Amino acid sequence: MNLNLIKPIVFFDLETTGVNIATDRIVEIAVLKVFPNGNKESKTWLVNPEMEIPQGSIDVHGITNEKVVTEPTFKELASTVSEMIAGCDLAGFNSNRFDIPLLAEELMRAGIDFDMKDRKAIDVQVIFHKKEQRTLGAGYQFYCGKELEGAHGAAADTNATYEILLAQLDKYDDIENSVAALSEFSTHGIRADFAGFILMNDENQEIFSFGKHKGRTVEAVFTENPGYNNWMQNADFPLYTKKVLKEIKERMSAPKEKMSDEDKLQALQQKFNLR
Question: What CA–CA distances, in Å, run from 3 to 140, 201, 238, 260, 263?
Answer without folding.
Answer: 18, 31, 32, 48, 45
